[in-house]
Write a structure and sequence with these properties.
Elements lengths: L4 E3 L6 E3 L4 E6 L3 H4 L4 H4 L5 H4 L2 H13 L3 E7 L10 H5 L10 E2 L2 E2 L22 E4 L10 H7 L4 E7 L1 H14 L3 E10 L3 H16 L3 E3 L1 H8 L7
Parallel strand pairs: 3-4, 3-8, 4-7, 8-9, 9-10
Antiparallel strand pairs: 1-2, 5-6
Helix pairs in contact: 4-9, 7-8
């Protein structure tokens, strides 16, 4: 018998099959989330992003206990920057930009310390990690192949930043037919106004891009699933 669960969400309840649902943890990388990373070099306060780590960890633990699919993403580029458009490198006229040496190694370069995911959310060997060169997790990656291989139809979305990589990925997923539940306390922006606006855009017009709920509401139903060995 197919198990279906329902979460109290906005603009209305979100119903999903756990076996066909993946937790997507977007770009929870040191360069964005930790002090001394690229985000802070840009002049941002990383505290709002740090606040998303603990609730994301609780959701991650719940998915793991239930044996559900988990996928992580990282934004970054090849060491030779051959997959980084010149326009992206030039954007912002930054003193320390993509490919430059920063406190955590070369900024947003694969294999560098800052490019990797924070320790609290470190992927398990069995959890796919999608390295992406752009904002969206579907662009120039094999994410869709990974999801199709697992029979995934719904995504529980966490990560940073809400208005950039999270939003772009949710829009991409929506166009591909995936149902997305965004957890408002597990996504974050450096800018409070952007956080509020981005979440409102998702649920507007009857959920034009998806649903929004708190992690607590999701955990109430996920925690009822039997634990997997």
């Amino acid at each position: 018998m197919t198990t279906r669960l329902t979460v109290d969400a906005e603009p209305y309840e979100f119903t999903f099959e756990p076996a066909r649902t993946a937790l997507l943890v977007i770009d929870m990388q040191r360069d964005f989330v930790d002090p001394g990373g690229f985000g802070e070099l840009l002049g941002n306060d990383v505290a709002p992003l740090r606040r998303a780590v603990a609730p994301t960890r609780r959701v991650l633990d719940a998915f793991r206990r239930a044996g559900l699919t988990v996928v992580h993403t990282r934004e970054g580029h090849r060491p030779d920057l051959s997959d980084c458009p010149p326009s992206k490198r030039a954007r912002g006229r930054l003193p320390v930009g993509i490919g430059d040496k920063g406190p955590m190694g070369r900024v947003l370069v694969r294999g560098e310390y800052g490019h990797d995911i924070v320790d609290e959310l470190r992927p398990r060997p069995s959890e796919p990690v999608i390295d992406k060169p752009g904002k969206g997790a579907f662009y120039a990656t094999d994410l869709e192949l990974v999801l199709k291989d697992q029979g995934i139809q719904s995504l529980v979305v966490t990560g940073v930043t809400t208005e950039v990589c999270v939003h772009t990925t949710v829009r991409e997923a929506n166009d591909r037919g995936y149902e997305c539940l965004v957890l408002e306390d597990c996504v974050a922006s450096y800018f409070p106004a952007f956080q509020a606006a981005a979440l409102a855009m998702i649920t507007a017009q009857g959920g034009i891009f998806g649903w929004v709920a708190t992690s607590e509401r999701l955990l109430k139903v996920i925690d009822g699933l039997p634990a997997q060995a």
